[in-house]
Amino acid sequence: GGFMVLYPQQSMTRQVQRCWRWFQPDSLHGGAEADLIAALIRAEVARHGLDPQRVYIAGLSAGAGMAALVALRHPALIAALAMHSGPVVGDAHSATAGLHTMRRGTLRPLLPLVQAVADPALFQLGMPTMILHGQMDPAVAPRNARQLFEQFRAVNGLAPDEPTVERVLGLGTEKAYRRVDLLRDRKVVLRLCEITRVEHGWSGGDASVRYHARSGPDASALAWRFFQGQRRVLVSS
Q1: Of 44, 85, 125, 224, which is most buried with the most CB atoms under 10 A?
Q2: Packing angle between helix 110-117 and helix 143-155, nearest 10 degrees?
Q3: In a 10 Å sphere around its CB, with 0-12 CB exposed, 13-18 middle and 19+ buried, how is residue 37 labelled?
Q4: What is the pTM for the complete model shown?
């Protein structure tokens, strides 16, 4: 495919289950982890001579929450974001609150939650985003995905009444999912994939691996196809 994949791993000394601390987005915890990941990305881009306009980030569950934090804190670095089975941004500020967010989403206004954790430049640059979520997910309620969609609608400057383009793909099969797109100049800026028969796992993955689901479309292929059409235009200072 002509691309490089970087897999950072959380330390057990920071979180016993090796989950990224998306639920503590302050600069000493989750924010610091996001900044370290961004520094690692920059170092690898420089070391391997990679295209800085084509840097993308994706994650599952807590990894989705951390991917969002990296993209929000470093919008000039990340060209596009994919979140699979992830929590709504900015609602939780402790482990206990994180569990509540996972179970019910947020009860608070959505945009201020993003503004509280994002670099202000985000709202000038935008952030093309794909959201994937299994509709049978018992760990992170699917409501989170719909709230993420509305958060990143605002991030990308798309009006609340902007019409969506909706399709159901793979109807009647184990790969069925509903796709909801928002476009700008005929280009998809925001995409939601609600996957019918997937619980809390990476859709279309290897079922022998924890947090992978055999059913559902190939989430890796969906994310890569979405990323291929996105570039971060670099602005010189």
Answers
A1: 85
A2: 70
A3: buried
A4: 0.96
